[in-house]
């Protein structure tokens, strides 16, 4: 049996943390390894516990979720961050996604959907609602990455198209009959050539420039 997905819950409300933990404790493949009450503690706990997935609130006193996410990226922490929010405004969610979040869910999500979202981002997927993806695209400069796409090889464009479809590295490897290591190399090359920082930005670039899987 595979190791359970290690999850860290970061939220300033104890009731929310307890509720999320209760949702997840019944899942055989998910283990809550810790909790944190604000962004500073969340970053420290993520560095200490090395979770696979961080459930991160956006609005917290002191260091909020977006700043905590940026700090984790500065530290090259590999955890996938899933924003858990009660705010539906795009101005709240979009900055978190631009900072590198793997997606977002709402605090009133049902337990099965929460567990499914954790499994999905752990597998390398990006969870973007269409309206938020559209907002992200509208905020990108129209010439962002313009002209750089010509430097991509045909194989890299295939990989990029599958990233835009929300495929994980494992799924891309299966689709293109490649090793996961080779796919990781292609993804790194794509990000470098397009001057992008993560898969979310790569997926948005692909949508903007018509690269599909």
Describe this protein with a few key phrases:
single chain; five-stranded parallel β-sheet; 5 strands; 213 residues; globular; alpha/beta
Give the structure's gist in a few sentences.
With 213 residues, the chain is of the alpha/beta class. 51% of the residues lie in helices and 13% in strands. It has a five-stranded parallel beta sheet with strand order 2-1-3-4-5, sandwiched between helices.
Can you describe this structure?
Residues 141-145 have low confidence and may be disordered. Strand 1, helix 1 and strand 2 form a beta-alpha-beta unit. 36% of the residues are buried. The protein is an alpha/beta fold. The chain is built from ten helices and five strands. Helices cover 51% and strands 13% of the residues. Strands 2-1-3-4-5 form a five-stranded parallel sheet, with helices on both faces.
Largest sheet: 5 strands, parallel
Mean pLDDT: 85
Give the ordered list of helices and strands: EHEHEHEHEHHHHHH
State the share of residues found in helices, binned by percent: 40-55%
Shape: globular
Radius of gyration of CA atoms, rounded to a whole number: 17 Å
Q: Stretches where pLDDT falls below 50 for ≥5 residues?
A: 141-145
Widest sheet: strand ordering: 2-1-3-4-5
* Structure summary, number of beta strands: 5
Number of helices: 10
């Amino acid at each position: 049996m595979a190791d359970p997905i290690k999850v860290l819950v970061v939220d300033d409300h104890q009731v929310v943390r307890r509720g999320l933990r209760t949702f997840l404790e019944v899942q055989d493949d998910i283990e809550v390894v810790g909790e944190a009450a604000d962004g500073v503690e969340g970053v420290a706990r993520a560095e200490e516990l090395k979770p696979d997935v961080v459930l991160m609130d956006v609005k917290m006193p002191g260091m909020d979720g977006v700043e905590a996410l940026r700090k984790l990226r500065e530290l090259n922490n590999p955890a996938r961050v899933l924003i858990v929010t009660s705010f539906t405004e795009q101005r709240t969610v979009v900055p978190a996604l631009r900072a590198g979040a793997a997606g977002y869910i709402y605090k009133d999500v049902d337990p099965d959907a929460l567990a499914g979202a954790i499994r999905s981002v752990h597998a390398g997927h990006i969870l973007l609602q269409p309206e938020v993806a559209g907002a992200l695209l509208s905020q990108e400069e129209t010439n962002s990455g313009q002209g750089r796409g010509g430097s991509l090889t045909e194989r890299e464009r295939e990989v990029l198209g599958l990233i835009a479809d929300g495929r994980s590295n494992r799924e891309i490897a299966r689709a293109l009959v490649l090793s996961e290591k080779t796919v990781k190399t292609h993804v790194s090359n794509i990000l470098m050539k397009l001057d992008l920082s993560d898969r979310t930005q790569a997926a948005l670039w692909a949508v903007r420039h018509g690269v599909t899987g």
